[in-house]
Amino acid sequence: MSAGQRERQGAVWVYGVVPAGAALQELERRGERLPEVWLVDAGELAAIAGPAPADDERGTRDQALAHARVLEAAVVDAPVVPFRFGIVVAAGQEVGEDLLLAHHDELAALLRRVERRVQMTLKAYYDEERLLREIVEREPEVARLREQLRERPEQESRDDRVRLGELVEAAVEQARQRDAAALLEAVRPVTVAGATDPLEREYMVLNAPLLVERERLREFEQAVERLADEHAGRIRFRLLGPMPAYSFVDVEDPRWA
Amino acid sequence: MGVQPSPGGALERSQESSLADVVSTILEKGVVIDVFARVSLVGIELLRADVRVVIASVDTYLRFAEQVGRLDLGSEEPRDLTEFVGDVSESASKGKGKGALEAGADKLHDLVGGRRREHEGARR
User: Does residue B10 belong to any structural domain of this protein?
Assistant: First the structure.
């Protein structure tokens, strides 16, 4: 066992920070399905803490789920400053003294920033076949090349196939830019701020963390439901959250540009 | 904070995050307190590999060409597609339309089942 590994034994994983005295009922309710966590109070703050995981692939994966799920449960009842995945307080240091009190005002300011706000992440995906159909209809060159290539053996038409693929790729990208902009525009009136994260798959339209006022959550959800109805058959939507404002907590004054 | 499933089905709500969702949500996000070293956990690189973005390459183009090539344009809105009519009957007789539908189902399964499979496919 290396020195680093030995130090980590007894280390405390920090999930995030909530106001002292927060009643985290949902966290308690889901307790059985979550790893052991406890609250450490100091000043106006409380840290959600737990044992650091085993340092192996399985431990890391389980902890990734645990990190998100513990914080998701906590944010149901209280504002949460989410800590980045992998922050631990080593054995020999105190969560209360060395973390919360040493950084009290800074953390309290972050907590005020996320007060009454949560993150919702909107993911949108094209129906692949529907989009390709549209492209063939709209782009005469794509339609022409496509027809031409159907009769030719693959070996001798590689260059034209690449050319066709390039045209399709460019058309997908063009559609994506237009649709992503329209989707963001549609949720803008019911959100405080938004960001665009990297896409996770080829036919994804948008991967957007959105900052939403708790009070307007229902209104936001209705707006997304309308979007989903409007684009039914062409774009599928997934809505994740409420979750802590992972993508906005380090932004001084999050708002739409 | 109740979360209702959408009756329409075009919007999917999840009560709890899957690993794939979690990875793109939490990695590199959230507050860092400088004096506390972040642990470098074994396996964190593997998590990161899950969010790899597909980069356009010749393989991508060939795949796009193949996907657009096997579309069965006859099964929807035929009035706009009169120029492909000859082609439609040909592909229907070869059963290409079925292939395209099956591919669609596979993609949906990828989405539901998480991201791993898709990346394995993309690597080929």
Answer: no
Q: Which long-range contacts (CB under 8 A, 24 or more apart) does B53-56 make?
A: B53/A198, B53/A199, B53/A200, B54/A199, B54/A201, B54/A202, B54/B122, B56/A169
- Taking an 8 Å cut-off on Cβ atoms, the answer to whether A59 and B22 are in contact is no
Q: Is B4 part of a structural domain of the chain?
A: no
- Whether this model's ipTM surpasses 0.90 comes out as no
> Does residue B3 fall inside a structural domain?
no
Q: What predicted TM-score, i.e. pTM, was given to this entire model? A: 0.78
Query: What is the H or E stretch that residue A171 is in?
Result: helix A158-187
User: Which domain, by its residues, includes B113?
Assistant: 19-123
Query: Choosing among A70, A173, A200, which should be mutated to test the B contact, i.e. which has the most B CBs within 10 A?
Result: A200
Q: What is the pLDDT of residues A120-163, one digit of tens each?
A: 999 999 999 999 999 999 999 999 999 999 888 877 889 999 99
**Beta-carbon separation of B68 and A132 below 8 A:** yes
